[in-house]
Write a structure and sequence with these properties.
mainly alpha; 246 residues; 11 helices
Length: 246
């Protein structure tokens, strides 16, 4: 199942890369997330560093053009730096890893202090640590997963009252992120509660079978993931361009 999932993610991102339109940075009808998400994800998911670098450059340009979105943009910058740090670690460049990881933490910290333009900070920060937590050096993993849990919990507090009304992707990523970060931080009772919630509100989605497997075989959770199971279609640039041009 996990091989199929990986292939699906690669296929989705590859298609998005092939169809990537020109990024309309000056068009305020697009959120900063729509403008940078796919390029950053192209680096994360398929190692397309050309698009990833474009995403990094656009984050810097948007920080100048949309200062009111600094919180959101700094969380994207933190995620990009975290990925760079992971690549440095995996390339045995210890000093570079430490420098980039510290910059990532600083970016996330600045994002967390923002009082506006910050509605997605918890989601981006929690998701970044969830995506890369297991790829960090062992001595950094506990703190990373703790940060992921704290951010997902904050996100759940924001969205819990209307969670059942959100699209599958948003429901799944909030609950999946909570379940996985709870599991990684040793919160057994909370992990079980979130898995039950996933089964209850995400039946028939890719999240359900993983939740059931984790409940049946808790040991399997240590080396598997229950996040990034679906595509955020509504947030894609091509989709928004099409909607706006109708």
């Amino acid at each position: 199942m996990y091989i199929k999932k990986a292939l699906l993610v690669v296929a989705l991102v590859t298609v998005a890369a092939a169809q990537s339109p020109q990024i309309p940075l000056s068009d305020s009808r697009f959120t900063v997330h729509t403008l940078v998400r796919e390029d950053i994800f192209a680096g994360w998911m398929t190692d397309d560093m050309g698009r990833f670098e474009r995403g990094e450059k656009n984050i810097e340009l948007l920080l100048e053009q949309r200062p009111g979105q600094r919180g959101n943009l700094m969380s994207w910058k933190g995620g990009a730096l975290l990925y760079r740090a992971v690549l440095a670690h995996e390339g045995n460049r210890a000093d570079e890893f430490k420098r980039l990881y510290r910059q990532a933490l600083d970016a996330f910290a600045e994002a967390a202090k923002a009082t506006s333009g910050n509605e997605a900070v918890a989601a981006i920060t929690g998701g970044s640590f969830a995506l890369f937590g297991d790829r960090l050096p062992k001595e950094y993993r506990a703190a990373a997963w703790s940060a992921s849990y704290d951010n997902y919990l904050a996100l759940y507090k924001q969205q819990g009252a209307f969670l059942d009304k959100l699209p599958v992707h948003l429901r799944g990523e909030v609950l999946g992120g909570l379940a996985q970060s709870a599991q990684r931080t040793g919160r057994k009772e909370e992990t079980a509660q979130y898995l039950d919630k996933i089964i209850a509100v995400l039946g028939g989605t890719p999240y359900e079978p993983v939740a059931k497997k984790w409940k049946a075989n808790p040991e399997s959770a240590a080396n598997t993931s229950i996040t990034c199971m679906t595509c955020h279609d509504a947030g894609r640039l091509a989709v928004r361009l099409s909607d706006l041009n109708k």
